[in-house]
């Protein structure tokens, strides 16, 4: 009886091959947390710093005047003659 040259695996969670059962290694949560803080947090922070001035400018120069024009009848009700 000879061993096949390629191993055939049958499960997604555990690798059941022609040899012993091997569980996939999972990263430690504390290490994953540290990696996320070091790499993801600065990216999110930079994006927020970049988007805040754009958002404020759009509100001041586009959204507010548009709302003021569209809802002028509601914001400044006319007095009866």
Descriptive report:
This protein has 81 residues and is an all-alpha fold. It has a domain at 29-75. Helices cover 57% and strands 0% of the residues. It contains two helices and no strands. It has helices spanning 29-70, 72-75. The N and C termini lie far apart (105 Å). The mean pLDDT is 81.
Question: Which features characterize this protein?
Answer:
81 residues, mainly alpha, 2 helices, elongated
Query: Would you tell me the overall average pLDDT?
Result: 81
End-to-end CA span: 105 Å
Structural class: mainly alpha
The biggest beta sheet reads: none
Radius of gyration: 30 Å
- Give the uncertain stretches in residue-range form: none
**Helix-strand string:** HH
Overall strand count:
0
Shape category: elongated
Helix content: 55-70%
Oligomer type = single chain
Number of helices: 2
Q: Beta fraction of the residues?
A: under 5%
Write a compact overview of the structure shown:
Helices cover 57% and strands 0% of the residues. With 81 residues, the chain is mainly alpha-helical.
Outline the secondary-structure elements.
Layout: H1 29-70, H2 72-75
């Amino acid at each position: 009886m000879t061993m096949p040259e390629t191993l055939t695996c049958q499960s997604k969670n555990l690798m059941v091959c022609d040899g012993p059962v091997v569980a996939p290694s999972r990263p430690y949560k504390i290490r994953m947390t540290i990696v996320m803080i070091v790499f993801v947090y600065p990216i999110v922070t930079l994006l927020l710093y970049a988007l805040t001035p754009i958002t404020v400018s759009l509100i001041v120069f586009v959204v507010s005047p548009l709302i003021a024009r569209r809802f002028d009848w509601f914001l400044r009700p006319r007095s009866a003659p």
